[in-house]
Design goal:
single chain; alpha+beta; seven-stranded antiparallel β-sheet; three-stranded antiparallel β-sheet
């Protein structure tokens, strides 16, 4: 019997009362690291890959995501998330099924190879999206662990997943670039509060349930410090599903956009949610576990 089949919950969250931090019981690296860029992934929980895409590729993908954001029919699709205040496109989910160019990128060995090295198995796309953070009014993401949400609301048994954020714009320290706490992936942060029905409708715009307490964020920041993903367009950040991360609002004139791909191990497929009344829609959390080839 597998861990998923036995329904053992080693990472309880969405509790009625505050719960203490818990040390992770799973490895960070399940396979064999071959890329020098991933040498510190086990210790830090993330790695920066410079020049993953060429300037020509960046230009092509930038044109593609601009096309998607300006498509009036697509804007009506439930996979498109609109900013609360600005009424602009914030994210487009399941983008690898909408765009042939991004579907090909998912299968690119430069991309899929990184995930396989860390996860030590075949992988499938748990989630894909394009994120847009426009200048002056781009809204950030509060501190959180992706795995906490994927475990509670999607039924992901263990933190055996990685995210790859590919920058299509320059990431400066001042335009809302992603912040991470190096080493925090080794600690699971339970969150307090019951998950409402259809929570994803609000959380994808502004998350209020599944958010760590100020005390836990402070403890992790004191222990690990905060690093920031800055770099030129075409660079990428690969990070563990359980690392604490977030981003500030972008009040500068410089927009920020990225392609965001989440790879989960085929040995860590989803079961019923551990702390939600029903699974989120499949365009947010895929239940087609076909390996990427």
């Amino acid at each position: 019997m597998t861990l998923a089949e036995s329904r053992i919950d080693r990472y309880p969250t969405r509790t009625a009362a505050p719960a203490p931090l818990a040390e992770r019981t799973d490895p960070t690296v399940w396979g064999r690291i071959e890329s020098p860029a991933l040498a510190n992934f086990d210790a830090d929980g993330y790695a920066i890959i410079d020049e993953l895409l060429s300037p020509t590729e960046v230009a092509d993908f930038s044109a593609e995501i601009d096309r998607l954001a300006s498509d009036p029919e697509l804007r009506l699709d439930e996979r498109v998330i609109i900013e609360k205040k600005s009424n602009r496109v914030r994210s487009i989910f399941e983008v690898h099924t909408i765009s042939a160019a991004i579907a090909a990128l998912v299968r690119d060995e430069r991309v899929i190879g990184l995930a396989r090295q860390v996860l030590g198995s075949d992988v499938y796309i748990h989630q894909s999206r394009v994120n847009y953070m426009p200048g002056f009014e781009g809204t950030g993401f509060y501190w959180h662990s992706d795995f906490e949400t994927w475990h509670a609301e999607d039924g992901m048994p263990a933190p055996r997943a990685v995210s790859l954020s590919i920058a299509l714009t320059d990431n400066y320290p001042f335009n809302g670039s992603l912040m991470v706490m190096p080493g925090s992936h080794r600690t699971f942060v339970p969150c307090q509060g019951e998950t409402p029905a259809d929570h994803y409708r609000e959380s994808l715009r502004e998350q209020q349930i599944g958010v760590p307490s100020h005390a836990h964020i402070t403890e992790l920041a004191d222990r690990h410090g905060i690093a920031q993903f800055t770099g030129a367009r075409g660079s990428a950040l690969l990070f563990d599903s359980n690392i604490m991360h977030g981003s500030a609002n972008n009040i500068t004139p410089f927009p920020r956009s990225n392609i965001f791909l989440v790879f989960n191990s085929v040995e860590n497929t989803l079961v019923e949610p551990y702390a939600a009344p029903a699974p989120r829609p499949t365009h947010i959390a895929a239940r087609d576990f076909t390996p990427v080839r």
